[in-house]
Amino acid sequence: MFCTGIENSNPTIDHGRTRVDEMESCQFYARWQEDLALVRDLGINFLRYGPPIHRTLLGPGRHDWDFADATLAEIRRLRIVPIIDLCHFGVPDWLGNFQNPDFPARFEAYALAFARRYPWIQLYTPVNEMFICATFSARYGWWNEQETSDRAYVTAIKHIVKANVLAMQAILTVRPDAIFIQSESSEYFHAENPAAIGPAEHLNSLRFLPLDLNYGRRVDSEVYDFLLDNGMSREEYRFFLQHRLKQHCIMGNDYYVTNEHRVCADGMVRPAGEVFGYDEITRQYFDRYRLPVMHTETNHNEGPSGQEAVNWLWKEWANVLRVRNNGVPIVGFTWYSLTDQVDWDTALRQRNNRVNPLGLYDLDRNIRNVGRAYRQLIQDWRNVLPTQSLCLTVPVVMPGEGGDVHAEAQRDKAREIVRSETPQPSTQAS
């Protein structure tokens, strides 16, 4: 799957007073028809996209589907396969932020309503980059709740991951053959000196926390103590062990030049640049979860020569091939996003309206060098093994084929699997 994405981050800053809406900043609301046509012009058949939750989910059971209806109808007409991104770093104002204990149930209801309205959609990323969302909101103090404590961080993690799990369960009741592609940031923390080994090991354990909980994997003992010391109850922890949906998932992982960090003895971190790279870090995550993999995000500034992003694309693609040649089942690659972005040079912490040249197209919708290079890469590699396999075809059912006999048989089989996974009520007398 060669893929790109529509940047739809929408966190709040200024303690909830200001919404940073990248769809607005990047002019997608005004130019969505043009943008979707550009996806097809590049030869891309898969698109990470989701309607803005803060404009769609207006209140409990209240939705404005107009924009989603229009854009998804055009995506379907163009025969683009959407990977639906339901929550991308922000929640509606009426829900507040990720400290709100109501968020998981409200998000579950939203996911169910979405799946019922668009039953032809099979691929989902319910909550994007759970690690980054919790870290930036409740550890660094940059977004949403803007908290900086371990307790706030654990609260955000448990609410975000529970929301993701409940959303997956809800979608499966409508689309039992749904496939969930977790777009998660793949990180590594390097100890700067011997005194930093302990802090680095702690951070390297925490980098797995959202996926451990999401996939029902028992966390490391140190992390378990950390969770209980900071507000997660044993019952809350057991929820994740008892709701294991790993078998419906692809481990989507994101890698940027900013994903590796140097750790000081006092626990402070600073950028390390690319040290291990995508191949090595992906191997670490694959060894832990043993799931098919998709490279769900990367990009790079175009750079002063105009070739820096092209060189990064080549390097990431070489890493994808290396991952595949080493036996990891990798099913897709993504340059994120379709167009340039705005204010990501300050991680959306400030409204500077500064354009970041990261896209396949600039904000005037002129193709960048990396856009031309990606189009050529797709033409060269689309039908060449081992980058694709008939045994690893996603989605199982294409959007326009949902009514045929094969698709119905696939769904019936998936429905039986889902039914067998659902815990049955106890018949033992009380």
From TrEMBL:
Compositional bias of kind Basic and acidic residues: 403-419
Database matches in Pfam families: Glyco_hydro_1 (PF00232)
PANTHER family in the cross-refs: ALPHA-L-IDURONIDASE (PTHR12631), BETA-XYLOSIDASE-LIKE PROTEIN-RELATED (PTHR12631:SF10)
Name of this chain's protein: Glycoside hydrolase family 1 protein
Example GO biological process: carbohydrate metabolic process
GO molecular function: hydrolase activity, hydrolyzing O-glycosyl compounds
Organism, scientific name: Aestuariivirga litoralis
Region (Disordered): 403-430
Keyword vocabulary terms for this entry: Hydrolase
Extent of Polar residues compositional bias: 421-430
Hydrolase as UniProt keyword: yes
Keyword Hydrolase: yes
